[in-house]
Amino acid sequence: MVEPRDLWIFERNRLLILKSLFCCENHLCSSDFMNSLDIPKNLVSYHLKTLRENGYVQEKPVGRNKNYQLHPNKINQVIYVLKAVGLIDEAIPLENK
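RE: above sequence
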């Protein structure tokens, strides 16, 4: 369930980043978001930082780059949010935990 204090997550670019991470089985780097979502680098960095600081995204250094993935503890909340805004199919089940 999304609490009122979590409404910040409903920003368009954050939702698109979360959807990309949810739909991708591999880790993504910031240039992946810039290319696929057509979001400038500064906004990608800002939104990834916000998602990371709020526990939704994990960051893994790989050489000079950083790769990102959804935090396993937040997957159900991400599914719930993405369903609520119509970015993923309602039929996708929640993860069993």
